Amino acid sequence: MSGAPLLAVTDLTVDYHTRAGEVRAVDGVSFTVETGQALGLVGESGCGKSSLALALLRLLPESAQIRQGQVLLEGVDLLALSANDMRAYRWNRIAMVFQSAMNALDPVYRVGDQIIEALEQHPSAVSQDPAERVRELYDLVNLNHNSIDRYPHEYSGGMKQRAIIAMALACRPDLIIADEPTTALDVIVQDRILRELGNIRRELNMSMLYVSHDMAVIAEVSDVVAVMYAGKIVEYGDAAAVFKRPIHPYTRALMSSFPSVTGEKHDLATLSGEPPNPLDLPSGCHFHPRCPFATDVCKEQAPPTVRRGTQWADCWNPPGDEADG
Amino acid sequence: MAETAQRASAEDARPLLTVERLRKHFPAGKTRFRRHTPLVHAVDDVSFTLARGESLGLVGESGCGKTTTGKMLVRLIEPTAGRVVFDDGAGQPTDIATLRGKHLKEFRRHAQIIFQDPYESMNPRRTIFDTIAEPLQVQKIGALPERLDRVTEMLALVGLTPPRTFLFRYPHELSGGQRQRVAIARALIVEPAFVVADEPTSMLDVSVRTGIMRLMSDLAAGLGISYLYITHDLAVARYMCDRIAVMYLGKIVEIGATEEILRSPQHPYTQALLSAVPVPDPTVERPPVTIKGGVARQVDPPARCRFFDRCPLADDSCETNDHPPLEHKGQEQLVACYKA
Predict the structure, then answer these.
(1) Which of A156, A188, A239 sits opposite B282 (nearest CB)?
(2) In terms of domains, do A235 and A270 share one?
(3) ipTM for this model
(4) B12 or B167, which is more confident?
(5) Which residues span the domain enclosing A185?
């Protein structure tokens, strides 16, 4: 973790054109990911976390537009690259695993052949024999070699997700972007995939951006956590620090409303209201209508950044004595 | 809710529902060239009771038969075999597994279901009033003005206030959380004795989910409703259920008081399931999950323990004997395992 970060995102802003008007999905988001680091991006549906992940790869749908910002991968601005140059970055340098990955495999081709195809698209990345590389990848994700020549329908959900991870790792990327990769899986399968992903990441010193709505999963996979609400990162910091002493009232609410099977059974907090409509965002701090600590200033002006060590949050009235100013 | 259940059971020891040896076998891959039709044993010899005012959690992975069980209890699916004796204290205890015609319709007043997906479980062309009033219409309860009053009352009860502003809106104008509140209102308007709740919060956001969970607990306590609460999430079951039944491949492998099961799970499958649940604390290192392989086959399963192929404790006796019966292991804890 020396020198410049692997990925530096600055002031990234994404708008969607809809029939009802312009919707700002990602609103001036900045963060960095160091080499070997796992950043967990947590938020509820519609907060912009998936749009953010897609924007980094320049895979947003046509109705979306990146208004401003920079995405620097080792100093190269991905947003300024030509479409062709960007294609060379995807898979090679940044790979992705999506929730819908279950459907990302073509049903009429053998799974192994699909991974070979991905390898052949990027011949510079891996010099060895593609078939050999596929066997190596299957070992890495704990899939049996005899399933290489099978079709996707012969795979279980967990096996498909493993194959997709193998495909994402095929070209030895520096950064893997995972958007809810285990959400559709049962807990025991999820546990295995998360453990394997962690082992592989440590082994290859790979960075990861892990997007999820699940606080518990985020707690387990991340070194650093970013909490998103209504298009903005509202809190950021070391996972241990954020989970131990969250600054932002939203982070606090998320944590105290999350049930756990271990420890004392505490009363679950209920947050009033619902996440805001992106077409009609509340003024000032977007969280103020649901915030138990909101005062007049929260309704009028965007909140300032409060810091505690490397942890920060955007809030006018951080509850308790947490903030050091 | 635990207190409610105790009070209720003190008043009347007879359970509201007694499920005995319930089975559902679906034919799989029927062809005319095969004499034997292979059968998927979706639910296989399941027995339990549900007390008045109690909330029983049915927990397990996808495909374990929890939803099929729930649907049989409200007779959306007809059981292959077994009895479901319903006894609300008002009439004679009846086996609802074989009810037909007007008796079945009469039973539906007492048993309702809430589905997982609030977006799919409502007719998009019906107003909220029509949606919630439909059970009244089906059961021919009340005239229009009374129904309007009842629906308004229910809307207020489930926290959709002011009710008048919701009456004539359509499902697409509501958020997921609000729709699930409508689904709850629709289920409760006929004052049922029990409700099957099939993953009612798993599609909702965390910040909305707690509100729905609390609403369901409060309503159960206030109206004395029993729940069969189906979920894959043990953490949610902890907050919603007095007792938990863990299902694996059509069988209940462990059943008991919620905290007792979470504190000292006895069946190796329950232990694995619990140890696989992520913990929302980055400083906690979970021990590795001990079971191997994937879910075994459900089509014409062998007679031995369903968990045999994945069990870390299994030995020869587990292979040669039939699936183990549920036996007492704790105070109220029943476990189906020879080795536990």
Answers:
(1) A239
(2) no
(3) 0.84
(4) B167
(5) 7-244
